[in-house]
Amino acid sequence: AFMMLARKWDRLENQVNKHNYDVFEAIYQDTRDEGIIDDIQDLRRYLFLVESELVMKNKELMTKNNHIKK
Predict the structure, then answer these.
(1) What is the pLDDT of residues 17-43, one digit of tens each?
(2) Can you say whether the dihedral through the CA atoms of 23, 18, 21, 50 is positive or negative?
(3) Where are the alpha helices (DSSP H) in 1-70?
(4) Packing angle, helices 36-69 and 2-17, rounded to 10
């Protein structure tokens, strides 16, 4: 999971670096369908997946711990 996030972040960093780290300028200048906005959307989705997995595992752990205490 980390490498998926890191790869997208690296792509974003390389793209915004060309625009003095101005994310919005980079977005406005890149009008390709697979451009920077696509990478931002992908990164957001990957982050949601990581968060979802963490929440799910935490719920499983809490349920398991509650069953042990009873």
Answers:
(1) 999 999 999 999 998 988 999 999 999
(2) positive
(3) 2-17, 23-29, 36-69
(4) 150
C-alpha 2/C-alpha 4 separation (Å) is: 5
Apex 51 CA angle, 30 and 2, nearest 5: 65
| Token representation of residue 51 | 């968060």
pLDDT of residue 68: 63
Distance CA 59, CA 4 (A): 24
Give the span between the Cα atoms of 44 and 4, in whole angstroms. 11
Q: What is the pTM of this model?
A: 0.76
What is the per-residue pLDDT for 55? 93
